[in-house]
Amino acid sequence: MASAAASPSSLSLLHSTSATRSSPRLPSASLRLPTLPLRRLGFAGAAADSLLTLHVASRTRSFRGKASRGVVSMAKRSVGDLTGADLKGKKVFVRVDLNVPLDDNQKITDDTRVRAAIPTIKYLIDNGAKVILSSHLGRPKGVTPKFSLAPLVPRLSELLGIQVVKADDCIGPEVEKLVAALPDGGVLLLENVRFYKEEEKNEPEFAKKLASIADLYVNDAFGTAHRAHASTEGVTKFLRPSVAGFLLQKELDYLVGAVSSPKRPFAAIVGGSKVSSKIGVIESLLEKCDILLLGGGMIFTFYKAQGLSVGSSLVEEDKLSLATSLLEKAKAKGVSLLLPTDVVIADKFAPDANSKIVPASAIPDGWMGLDIGPDSIKIFNEALETTKTVIWNGPMGVFEFDKFAEGTVAVAKKLAELSKKDVTTIIGGGDSVAAVEKVGVADVMSHISTGGGASLELLEGKELPGVVALDEATPVPV
Fold this sequence. Notes:
Strand content: 5-15%
Family: Belongs to the phosphoglycerate kinase family.
Distance between the termini: 51 Å
Strand order of the largest sheet: 3-4-2-1-5-6
Number of helices: 17
Radius of gyration: 24 Å
CATH architecture of the largest domain: 3-Layer(aba) Sandwich
Subcellular location: Plastid, Chloroplast
Structural class: alpha/beta
Region (Disordered): 1-29
Main location: plastid
Low-confidence stretches: 1-73
Largest sheet: 6 strands, parallel
Subunit structure: Monomer.
CATH superfamily of the largest domain: Phosphoglycerate kinase, N-terminal domain
């Protein structure tokens, strides 16, 4: 690598002549080696309507045979494929994700996941089904009162417009009695399924007990679809049909479909503190994207791998060779991989730390990088302006501290601006969701994923057990 003392504007990370994709040439500055309500979920307020059902099912099926094998394997039958005749009077076991944060008074502090579950539940209610909801909350060790789902009942009832009945268990005679008494269009919420250790162990007998109270199965819990648990995978062995709910289907539509067959140019923005936690995502996206922007604490591992001084910034010493290989892979594939050209550094990790902006090649000893700088924001924005599809996973800095949130805020605002220009913008779970919520632009994004680990695994190209277990969609004749 060229010396870090060289002029930052003269070092070229990638040469546009090596590009193998049909994307427009980016501004030369972006090719420099750095010196270094329901609308919020993309449902547009009409998620329960039949048009969404048809759209999601058809969009997901349309990827069959046109993209990677992973897309084909993820094309699943949707709850929207089930008609009133299929659902009227039927007992439907619905795995939802109601794992919401509660305060000390057991009040919900963020009801996003509750609202996300409503379209599927409403569809089932409207078609005369008897809805049995199953979820976990927290990480209980046995029966733990503070992790009871009881606090969810008032909000669920309010959103659905009917009184939701709550069971004190998720299996057993009392649950069976409540199910037997459930009217068509009624909703029963089972107690926390993780009160039983058999849930996470996916024990067949426990799964059989859960399934015994229902006629068919709907999985709408994307956040737990990457786990082979009794309520996400085990019950499918005893219930047919087993189909995806609207939320799960929509996650697959965007995180599999739109990413595998994107409108180009396709850009990916990956941030976060460590390269190690995003290796799979970066490697997978390098196979698909035209532009890859990196931010967050991971950038310092890339800097050090190229011989730059990083002061006391976070570095994964055992990932230096990996960082080098990822840069080489990007170049070989013609992907424009952009690292920040300047950074905001601090003399300590604290919200009130002294800070200043320096070129990425000039981080002094004893200082640490906590955000990307204004020049980097400008270059990133220029690159993003050329795109038609963008996916974002991970913050650009320590956005919990206002002083080091500018990079993350800028990305959120830019994606909001692009969304209004019909660019597909996908927020891939985790801290990125918190960022767009904090900036107040969540409602304009094309899709905001409700899953953390599930989103990452899907972006890595992994198959999710809770999805694989569902019925395959019937191919649509072309």
